[in-house]
Write a structure and sequence with these properties.
40% of the residues lie in helices and 27% in strands. By secondary structure, it is of the alpha/beta class.
């Protein structure tokens, strides 16, 4: 339930610091990827930053769809977009914003293996202790629901829907988001937009 989930909303600066630390861990391990694959959609931004920090301009993406909403998922993810570049014989770094169940990362890693990748490692900004796939590199281990700056409105929309469906207070959940670090002005703005959309 949303009311029982702790939220964490890292700032852009905090995320960048975490990615700097991730890049250092990757460099110190001696792993030099030929290609960085960002997991669509959440892994795109971290993957782009890591291509800069690792001096590796080769960026590709793959997509596995899993989440239906806040803490609500399909039973199994589905690969909906194959890797967008040739990976046969290459060292590949998979990048995602969070390893939660780990199932999306698992299906993408299997896909890259089937495409002939020579070596595959996984880097995530956040890692949940129950993930089925262990990240080779992670920024932080957490049990919280992470709300990234690039998904504020999407998250708020999901919470509004779930709270309405469950006949629970929307305001209580919004207060938790603000306490976690989502700017109150943005919460108010997106709530206003979401309510206006519903009244059209």
């Amino acid at each position: 339930m949303v009311s029982e989930i702790g939220f964490e909303a890292p700032t852009w600066d905090k995320l960048y610091e975490m990615l700097l630390d991730l890049a250092e861990k990757i460099k110190e391990s001696g792993f030099k990827p030929d290609t960085i694959v960002g997991v669509s959609r959440g892994g795109w931004l971290p993957a782009r930053v890591l291509t800069d920090l690792l001096d590796n301009p080769t960026l590709a993406n793959a997509r596995a769809e899993f989440y239906l909403g806040i803490a609500k998922t399909e039973a199994e993810p589905k690969l909906t977009q194959s890797v967008s570049t040739e990976v046969a014989g290459k060292r590949v770094l998979i990048v995602d914003e969070v390893a939660d169940t780990g199932k999306s990362l698992k299906i993408i890693k299997e896909h890259l293996t089937n495409q002939g990748a020579k070596e595959i490692r996984i880097a995530t900004v956040y890692y949940k202790p129950w993930s089925a796939v262990k990240a080779d590199y992670c920024g932080k281990i957490t049990k919280c629901w992470i709300v990234f700056s690039w998904e504020f409105k999407e998250t708020i929309r999901g919470i509004v829907k779930k709270r309405r469906d469950d006949h629970k207070s929307i305001e209580e959940a919004m207060e938790k988001l603000v306490k976690a670090g989502v700017p109150e002005r943005l919460v108010r703005r997106f709530l206003k937009e979401i309510y206006a959309e519903r009244n059209r």
